[in-house]
Amino acid sequence: MVKICCIGAGYVGGPTMAVIALKCPSIEVVVVDISVNRINSWNSDQLPIYEPGLDDVVKECRGRNLFFSTDVEKHVYEADIIFVSVNTPTKTRGLGAGKAADLTYWESAAWMIADVSKSDKIVVEKSTVPVKTAEAIEKILNHNSKGIHFSILSNPEFLAEGTAIQDLLKPDRVLIGGRETPEGQKAVQALKEVYAHWVPEDRIIISNLWSAELAKLVANAFLAQRISSVNAVSALCEATGADVTEVAYSVGKDSRIGPKFLNASVGFGGSCFQKDILNLVYICESNGLAEVANYWKQVIKINDYQKNRFVNRVVSSMFNTVSGKKIAVLGFAFKKDTGDTRETPAIDVCKGLLGDNATISIYDPRVTEDQIQRDLAMNKFDWDHPIHLQSLSPTSVKKVRVTWDAYEAANGAHGVCILTEWDEFKQLDYQRIYDNMQKPAFIFDGRNVIDPEKLREIGFIVYSIGRPLNPWLKNLSAAS
């Protein structure tokens, strides 16, 4: 029986291994992690991450051919194929700080694999890593191999949170990169056979190692670029009276462009986009490609500009100050159908409003108060490091209250900011919200989930990203 071990029980490792176990009942799959709490959660009825469909898959396979354990070395020793799905956070200090990927955890995993292995292994990069990482991992493994052969493969994940299980069950493509040697191609074939249990052969792409490593960074950079492009256009739409939803719909009808990732918003978030672009920028700079690096930097700059522009729009609309005013924030996760808050635009928006002494009341159906308070107290990039290494900066968290009800959050507020596109925000009784707010009552829709005209009829002063402005807002600057 083939045995797969995955090091890292996070957003990628857990769901990916659960689906492999579901589709490959003849393969034993073990997910290992040094975090006792995380493994205990995977073995409980309350999984550590929320993802539609994940509970059902885990419950069907757990105890049959899917296991979660803290005994890392035992299962690495027994495995034929080892997936490494550990964090690759952005470096916060030293060479490349603020851009380069920190490969400390990957390197530690490689040393451990070399130390405990007594038989040949296929080691699969599942984490998003800089191009040429496999070369460094090969050196560590082969210089400590004691005669054991290690084949390194790159198998980047292309999951979207909120749809991860469907993305795994019906992927656009599975990319496997390996060395162009007989041993390398044999390893590629072994991993291909795992995916072939449910993925059509024409969707399994084989490439060299460096192409696979780079493809993941480039895919995320292209997606983020589309969001920054439509967000840049949203600012122009507001200035000219055009409607970004109409512009994007028309542009998306071009079959060469397509409609996805053309929704204007307060900005992109999540664990990948910014981190991967910064990584790409660093790689370009390291290879002397300054112009290419500057091109990709602009994607991040527009994203920061969009968040700043939103905060400035809130403040300027409300008589140029939100000091002492209550602002309700609806949605804190970076997108709907996930409880993930990593790099969520809500953090920067809330910090911007707190910087002008606002009082904030937050409601999100999937994010806990503890997580929100941690996010607002944390330094940039620290979220991706273990908790004991996270430095908490002082912040005005006393001015932040978290509620479990949208109406409670908005009660007595001067303004409402919609920062996540949860479906329930489309169904709220906005008349009730308006009746219980201070007047004039403002709504700032950072996700274009509401009908601005219907809300204006109720009496709200409405700002929707990239849509024609309320007369109230037309002469107010939102420049950063």
UniProtKB/TrEMBL annotation:
Alphabetized SUPFAM superfamilies for the sequence: 6-phosphogluconate dehydrogenase C-terminal domain-like, NAD(P)-binding Rossmann-fold domains, UDP-glucose/GDP-mannose dehydrogenase C-terminal domain
Any one annotated GO CC term: nucleus
Family: Belongs to the UDP-glucose/GDP-mannose dehydrogenase family.
Catalytic activity: UDP-alpha-D-glucose + 2 NAD(+) + H2O = UDP-alpha-D-glucuronate + 2 NADH + 3 H(+)
Function: Involved in the biosynthesis of UDP-glucuronic acid (UDP-GlcA), providing nucleotide sugars for cell-wall polymers.
Top-level taxon of origin: Eukaryota
Protein's name according to its UniProt entry: UDP-glucose 6-dehydrogenase
Statement: the UniProt record of this protein carries the keyword Oxidoreductase: yes
Keywords: NAD, Oxidoreductase
Gene3D superfamilies: Cytochrome c1, transmembrane anchor, C-terminal, NAD(P)-binding Rossmann-like Domain
Catalytic residues identified in the record: 272
Lineage: Eukaryota, Viridiplantae, Streptophyta, Embryophyta, Tracheophyta
Binding site for NAD(+): 8-13, 33, 38, 86-90, 127-128, 161, 272-275, 342
Source organism per UniProt: Dioscorea cayennensis subsp. rotundata (White Guinea yam)
EC number(s) stated in the UniProt entry for this protein: 1.1.1.22
Pathway stated in the Swiss-Prot or TrEMBL entry: Nucleotide-sugar biosynthesis; UDP-alpha-D-glucuronate biosynthesis; UDP-alpha-D-glucuronate from UDP-alpha-D-glucose: step 1/1
GO biological process, one term: glycosaminoglycan biosynthetic process
InterPro entries the UniProt entry points to: 6-PGluconate_DH-like_C_sf, NAD(P)-bd_dom_sf, UDP-Glc/GDP-Man, UDP-Glc/GDP-Man_DH_C, UDP-Glc/GDP-Man_DH_C_sf, UDP-Glc/GDP-Man_DH_dimer, UDP-Glc/GDP-Man_DH_N, UDPglc_DH_euk
Domain UDP-glucose/GDP-mannose dehydrogenase C-terminal, chain residue ranges per copy: 328-452
Entry's Gene Ontology molecular function annotations: NAD binding; UDP-glucose 6-dehydrogenase activity
EC top class, as a word: oxidoreductase
